[in-house]
Structure formats: C-alpha cells, structure tokens
Amino acid sequence: MTAFAACLFALAALASTGMIIASWRKYGPGARALRAQWKACPETLTLCWTSTERLPDLGAATVRKDRAVRPARQTAQPQGLAWPGMALAA
C-alpha cells in the first residue's frame, strides 16, 4: 500500500509541475509586461476610504463576567465604507 501511495503522490507531483509550467508559458509574458504597462500609463488613480467600527456584541460580554461592556461612542458614524463620488451619485 505504501508503494501505491508513493506512486500516486509522484503522479500528482508530475501533474502539478506540468500545470505550473503550462501556466508560466501562457501567462508569463503578460506578467512580465505589466511593469512596462504600468510605467507607460499617464494617469494615476488614488483611492481613499474610511472604515467604521462596529458596536460591541453584548451577548458575549454578558456571558463573561470578567469583561466589562465598553460604552458606545458618543459621535454618530455612518455605516459601511465612504467611497469617493458616492455623494455625486446620490
């Protein structure tokens, strides 16, 4: 049984190696050209985002008596991410 498992492992290793080599041949030139394409691009795009911290889960805090429940923040914050241009879409 051990020799059979070793043969299956070797066959799987050969199949994986063949797939890796095929992927390098297919996508290698495009991957090497990405740096030149990036340098040739005249425009840049800057992304800025903010995240919001969620309120603590009171269920877990009530079970564990050694943890105190943190008070909620006093300032109201919008839920989710604030994407640039969302005000223009609304």
How would you describe this structure to a colleague?
The mean pLDDT is 78. The chain starts with a helix and ends with a helix. The chain is flat. It contains 3 helices and no strands. The chain is mainly alpha-helical and 90 residues long.
Mind telling me the C-alpha Rg? Answer: 27 Å
Query: How many strand segments?
Result: 0
Structural class of the secondary elements? mainly alpha
Low-confidence stretches: none
**Mean pLDDT, nearest integer?**
78
Helix content: 40-55%
Order of helices and strands: HHH
- Termini separation: 66 Å
Major sheet description: none
Helical segment tally? Answer: 3
Q: What is the 3D form?
A: flat
What proportion strand? under 5%
Tell me the layout of helices and strands.
Layout: H1 2-40, H2 58-63, H3 86-89
